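Researcher: For the annotation table, I need structure tokens for Mycofactocin-coupled SDR family oxidoreductase. Please keep the output clean. Sequence:
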Amino acid sequence: MGRVEGKVALVTGAARGQGRSHAVKLASEGADIIAVDICKDIDTIGYAMARPEDLEETARLIEKTGRRVVSLQADVRDVAALRDAVQRGIAEFGHLDVVVAQAGVAGMKGEPKWQAWIDVMDTNLIGVINTVHAALPHLKAGASVIATGSTAALMDASKVDQPGKDPGGVAYMVAKRELSMFIHEIATHLAADNIRANVVHPTNCNTDMLQSEPMYRSFRPDLEHPTLADAQPGFHVQQAMPVPWIEPEDTSNMVLFLASDESRYVTGMQMRVDAGGYLKWYDYHV
């Protein structure tokens, strides 16, 4: 028996990166998957989004584990589309037990800059709220809600050197902080129904978001077109351990734990998978 045998999991951002990793990991441990991804570019985001063929590959990898999958193109900014995805998944599988709100974008250096702010907030914050709200009417005792935050949400970044310079980049941190608060509050009230809700906070993760020129430029603003080789030394500043990033599977291992009954009394937590990054920012406190 797998660790989530017989469960059904909704995973957003499932076409590639951490979302694909979570979906395949959960399937390998016995879950059927409702896999959702936008599968098209967002104008203000400076790197390519997943494509329909990426979502098809995720579905193929899930089926290779022996589990079933319903894969759908939907934008998490569209709550009606998410409700439809949930309904179609439940029509196929009969129930919903796990929600993994993974979909997210990074809008650093995005133009027009205030549209970049809107697109990041709508995806990373409103998209999480939409995902949870679409799923909530169908969740029963024992269900688990998992949202992806970021170590960026936990950093002390109160100093602003150049106000208004990069709203799209700032929106990433703001949205991840706000979704963390949202999950904290909803976990308090879902607990009465024996439903859990937690946030996973990865540090730099080796995905297409990280491996992009806009991200390289955020670490090497002194260069017009920095490469991975230029930026990689700067990636180390995020972690206490001597690594530039974690792998998607490192986050997936935490997602699997939170989805499983092993964590049946774990709720309202901010679970860091950050190679000690948080330790560089804060002294010990309860």
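Researcher: And a one-line annotation?
Model: The chain has eight helices and seven strands.
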